[in-house]
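TASK: fixed-backbone design
INPUT:
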């Protein structure tokens, strides 16, 4: 781990590919929270099916941001290769070298953590290798996604993972 002057700790990870069940969609940024909420509700229903085994925390991966919209994926790691159902499809979080950091608290200032991550990449002469993702350690799909039951945003722990070359 390396501590940086912008207040974040960064860790270089060497990841194995991770099989996921996910929903990928292109949505207007203004409707992002609504789309993610709907996606997690669908994943919760999917995860309750016999034979589906969730193997980690829920994530959101941003593939692109362009002209007021984003290509976004909501998902969860699973054991084995999931069977597609509705919008839920089998996917994979990539293996390889990545850098990770933590965002603590509400997502109102998540952009600052992404800026610190970008600064770290530049300082270390590294480039992103695909879209980053956020791993949500403050809720999981063992219970129905319901914002009214989530912990206070001040207690949220979100890990940002950025593949790099």
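OUTPUT:
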């Amino acid at each position: 781990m390396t501590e940086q002057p912008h207040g974040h700790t960064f860790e270089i990870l060497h990841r194995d590919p991770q099989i996921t069940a996910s929903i990928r969609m292109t949505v207007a940024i203004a409707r992002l929270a609504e789309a993610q909420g709907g996606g997690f509700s669908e994943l919760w229903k999917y995860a309750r099916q016999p034979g589906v085994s969730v193997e980690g925390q829920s994530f959101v991966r941003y593939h692109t941001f362009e002209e007021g919209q984003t290509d976004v994926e909501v998902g969860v790691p699973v054991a084995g290769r999931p069977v597609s159902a509705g919008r839920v499809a089998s996917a994979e979080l990539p293996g390889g070298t990545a850098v990770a950091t933590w965002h603590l608290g509400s997502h109102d200032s998540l952009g600052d953590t992404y800026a610190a991550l970008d600064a770290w990449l530049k300082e270390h002469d590294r480039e992103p290798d695909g879209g980053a993702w956020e791993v949500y350690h403050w809720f999981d799909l063992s219970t129905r996604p319901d914002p009214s039951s989530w912990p206070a945003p001040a207690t949220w722990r979100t890990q940002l993972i950025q593949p790099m070359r």
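COMMENT: The radius of gyration is 16 Å.
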